[in-house]
UniProtKB/TrEMBL annotation:
Residues 378-441 form the TRAM domain. It comes from the Bacteria. Keywords: 4Fe-4S, Cytoplasm, Iron, Iron-sulfur, Metal-binding, S-adenosyl-L-methionine, Transferase. One of its GO terms (molecular function) is metal ion binding. The lineage of its organism: Bacteria, Pseudomonadati, Bacteroidota, Bacteroidia, Marinilabiliales. It comes from Labilibaculum filiforme. This is tRNA-2-methylthio-N(6)-dimethylallyladenosine synthase. Its EC number is 2.8.4.3. Catalyzes the methylthiolation of N6-(dimethylallyl)adenosine (i(6)A), leading to the formation of 2-methylthio-N6-(dimethylallyl)adenosine (ms(2)i(6)A) at position 37 in tRNAs that read codons beginning with uridine. It holds the Pfam family UPF0004. Residues 140-375 form the Radical SAM core domain. NCBIfam families: miaB-methiolase, MiaB/RimO family radical SAM methylthiotransferase. Its cofactor is [4Fe-4S] cluster.
Length: 447
């Protein structure tokens, strides 16, 4: 019996998928890369983006046609809005919320018995028993990279975002479990670990007096890094500017294993648009955070998220976003054209920015990003950087990897034994979003 799983959306769904795989394989199923070979096919949906939902419908339409020729069970989970859930009920054999993952074997054995009312009650109680899900041991899809969920849900209610309605309110995972998982991964040779949450820097705030806060969590992981011999980098995503304190930045600067790369979503460079987005921070607050990062961790790279064409965004407001990109000189920006999602507050508002205008603003910001990304990349030339080799590059004869600051690097080598190892690379040339270098030394981490 074989299974296949498709994960859409953010890294949180990818991380959840590792636990889903673990549960399914404990049932005796074996993974297959080919959907057409599977007896059990699942998808982790993402109601946050319309494109992701469109892909769900495309996939399930194809899978249901296959049922005419062979036995096949389909399931769906992930971030699902009630409006999408109602439609999925008629299309999939099994639907479950991630907190109910431990019950998936029972659901599959008697699929089709879930009632819409019972299912809706389960989705209304988003984070009840989420600890049972966290206790499922992941089936990691990489031997050197791992994601660790540290919280679930979000309390921010940005007007463009559906996450509070798909994952519920914030719930923090016990810190002892998180630190223990980091320790276990590092001792087993993992070299890149990312802490995941919808708003990681509000970690612990839902359990004041019972749990530590995010700076202290990073500090404990940093102390662990000092104790262990193995070399590793720890990242986190995504933080919210409202909760980003100087203490977080100070802790990152203090510990070697805490990667000097920060993803700080700005979404817009205009204060009025930020108010409309219900971001609960202004550009001055954001600017102060970036200045602190530059002062305490000058070597850190800076990534961000930006939405163009949000409802009501005029030319002047968009220009403020372009100026912000120029001011902060991001190394990378994930630029999205706004699209309303049912469940989010902004869905009630008229989407008054045309697709052509959104595409043009996306193009302008991409060109602006290239200027600053290439400027930084050019500054890397003739310098040596530590690199985690991730795999074979698109160019024949090359391997590729990421620096600590998550800059893409390729170098001439066909030695696949280097994949998953740290090496030193001297940068020889730079492009818009990547650099090329030559291998200097091979220094494997202590096993």
């Amino acid at each position: 019996m074989k299974y296949h799983l498709v994960s859409l959306g953010c890294q949180m769904n990818a991380s959840d998928g590792e636990r889903v795989r673990s549960v399914i394989e404990n049932m005796g199923y074996q993974w297959t890369d080919k959907e057409e070979e599977a007896n059990l096919i699942g998808i982790l949906a993402c109601s946050v983006r319309q494109k992701a939902i469109d892909k769900v419908y495309s996939k399930i339409h194809k899978w249901n046609l296959w049922k005419n020729k062979r036995n096949l069970i389909t399931f769906v989970s992930g971030c699902i809005l009630p409006s999408d859930l109602d439609k999925f009920l008629k299309l999939f054999d099994v639907i479950f919320q991630m907190k109910d993952l431990p019950k998936l074997p029972e659901m599959i054995q008697q699929y089709g018995v879930t009632t819409p009312i019972g299912l809706q009650q389960g989705f209304d109680a988003h984070n009840d028993n989420i600890s049972e899900f966290w206790h499922v041991k992941p089936n990691y899809t990489s031997e050197f990279e791992a994601f660790i969920p540290i919280q679930n849900g979000c309390d921010k209610f940005c007007s463009f975002c559906a996450v509070p309605y798909t994952r519920g309110r914030e719930v923090s995972r016990p810190s002892d479990e998180i630190v223990e998982e980091v320790k276990s991964l590092v001792e087993n040779g993992f070299k890149s670990i990312t802490l995941l949450g919808q708003n990681v820097n509000s970690y612990g705030l839902d359990k004041k007096g019972e749990e530590i806060d995010f700076p202290e969590l990073l500090r404990r992981i940093g102390d662990l890094g000092n104790q262990l011999k193995n070399e590793f980098w720890v990242y986190f995503t995504s933080p919210h500017p409202r909760d980003m304190t100087d203490e977080v930045i100070e802790v990152i600067a203090q510990y070697k294993c805490l990667a000097k790369q920060i993803h700080l979503p700005v979404q817009s460079g205009d204060d009025k648009v930020l108010i409309h987005m219900n971001r609960k921070h202004g550009m001055e607050k954001y600017r102060q955070i970036v200045h602190t990062i530059k002062r305490l961790i000058p070597e850190a790279t800076l990534f961000t998220d930006i939405i163009v064409g949000f409802t009501g965004e005029n030319d002047e407001q968009f220009e403020n976003t372009r100026k912000a990109m120029s001011e902060f000189e991001y190394n990378m920006a994930y630029i999205a054209m706004y699209s309303p999602r049912p469940g989010a507050l902004s869905h009630r508002w008229f989407d008054d920015i045309s697709l052509d205008v959104k595409k043009e603003r996306h193009r302008i910001l991409t060109q602006e990003l290239k200027i600053h990304s290439k400027k930084y990349n050019a500054s890397m030339v003739n310098k040596t950087f530590r690199l985690l080799v991730k795999g074979v590059a698109k160019h024949e004869g090359y391997l590729a990897g990421l620096t600590e600051g998550r800059i893409n690097v390729r170098f001439l080598s066909e030695n696949k034994n280097l994949i998953g190892q740290f090496v030193d690379i001297k940068i020889t040339s730079a492009a818009d979003f990547s650099v090329e270098g030559e291998l200097i030394t091979i220094k494997e981490s202590v096993a």
